[in-house]
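SUBJECT: protein chain
CONTENTS: sequence, structure tokens:
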Amino acid sequence: NWLKENAEAFNIETMEKLNNSKWVLVLKNSIKVEIEGYIKMLEKVLFINSDIFFFISSLILFTVF
């Protein structure tokens, strides 16, 4: 009975039902969490690189002038 009910969960007739199905909602949330993690890593990289750029440009300015 359990197997039959869960197999029916994958028997979806429309895209709307597919988008609202439990496993697609879990998948969407998982993808969202992964993307948010990548965005945070990218923000850290950009912040570190901006600090490095500021440091190098300051060194150049102080050595030239």
In short: The chain has three helices and no strands. The mean pLDDT is 87.
